Amino acid sequence: MHPNALLELCAELIGAVNKLDAPADATVSAFFRQRKNLGQRERGCLAETVYALLRERTKFQHLAQSGTGPVPRRLAILAWRGNDSFLRAALTAGEKIWLEQVQAIAADSLPPRLRHNLPDWLAEPLRERVGEEEFWPLAAALNEAAPLDLRVNTLKLKREEALAELKAAGIDAEPTPYSPLGLRVQGKPALHKLPLFTGGGVEVQDEGSQLLALLLAPKRGEMVVDFCAGAGGKTLALGAAMRNTGRLYAFDVSGHRLDALKPRLARSGLSNVYPAQIAHERDDRVKRLAGKIDRVLVDAPCSGLGTLRRNPDLKWRQTPQAVEELQAKQRAILASAARMVKAGGRLVYATCSLLDAENEQIATEFESAHPEFKRLPADEALGKVQVERAGELTESGALRIWPHRHGMDGFFAVAWERAA
Ligand SMILES: C[S@@+](CC[C@H](N)C(=O)[O-])C[C@H]1O[C@@H](n2cnc3c(N)ncnc32)[C@H](O)[C@@H]1O
């Protein structure tokens, strides 16, 4: 494709994504579906540029105030992640001079909000939570691309065996630092045609998500509920930990998301999983299981702000009002899910949010209203399931994962045991 045609296409995609009226990944996929003639490399360039723009949107929008021509084209030039000489071949003489001027601006001369690229309502609680010194590494880590992590399905093979299969396929990987089930893959190789993947030997799952399932630690023969199962990332990990025995209910209000679990279940070889759509958290199905369940995982709907490395649009699409609405949902779901836990059973509340409002606050409110649930020190619980150096991952007995400290998405989880 001619350089200017690709740059114009990039500007068009940026114009669509920058409206922020839909998740960026959905807009990008729809754009590519309508342009089937685009090659792999061109798609890669457009997607990388759009994500680069979303990560540093405040800075790029500020810089794009100078220059001439349509703003989406200026943004595409500034955020360009394709070949540099290819871009230059698309630029007018005026654009080349402008780009050089903008690139000469020293990043550290910019005001703070153009350096951290977070909305104020999010920057402030994070700065308060981790302190000024740690805030900057956190903001930088949130703007990095996430690595590709896999969870090995130990029903099918051992982690070393999966690693050897990847190596034989020419894919470099290494064991994840904390999860005993994880592999971190170098680069972004296509995995979906590998027999290791199609045969259910591995699933794509961030190391942090693996740790949440490990914290629930379900055992053979138990009755377990994954209350907010979605497309079942954690369900699959729980089913394998149960060695395909017992009963694992995968609940969700979204039938569409549960549908996405089905092909994954088929690959996994699990037959102990019972997916069920519920109308809401007080559904009769939930009530019927009151006091009967050994372990319940609440992977609550949340702002998703711990996953900004993958979903940078969320920082621009979420609002403080949305977080308040989510808190109400989180309280209601946790209270309902807790009723299912039997005496001596375990309850885990988890989010992929960085905000105390969705994490510690929800957990401590629950504890004050339910003294029969006692917090289990997460480092001890994780240590028992072979998580390395679990003490590095916990704060006040809860699992608290930070992208800048641990190299994973941001996660929070508390485990409680119900008094016998
Ligand atoms: C964080 S996502 C779950 C991700 C999933 N556990 C995984 O590992 O792939 C939260 C899920 O909660 C579901 N949800 C929202 N409200 C719910 C409710 N009242 N009861 C049960 N699930 C709910 C959403 O549909 C969404 O799939």
Q: How would you describe what is shown here?
A:
The radius of gyration is 23 Å and the shape is globular. The model has no long low-confidence stretch (mean pLDDT 96). The protein has helices spanning 3-17, 24-33, 40-55, 57-63, 71-79, 84-90, 93-103, 112-116, 120-130, 132-142, 159-168, 195-198, 207-216, 233-241, 255-268, 284-288, 314-317, 320-338, 360-369, 378-384, 403-406; strands at residues 148-152, 173-175, 182-185, 202-204, 223-226, 247-252, 273-277, 293-299, 341-351, 373-376, 394-395, 398-401, 411-418. Helices cover 47% and strands 16% of the residues. Strands 5, 6, 7, 8, 9, 10, 11, 12 and 13 form a 9-stranded mixed sheet that branches. Strands 2-3-1-4 form a 4-stranded antiparallel sheet. Helix 1 packs across helix 5 and helix 13 (207-216) packs across helix 14. With 420 residues, it is α/β, with parallel strands linked by helices. It has 3 domains: 3-117; 148-204, Sun protein, domain 3 (Alpha-Beta Plaits, 2-Layer Sandwich); 207-418, Rossmann fold.
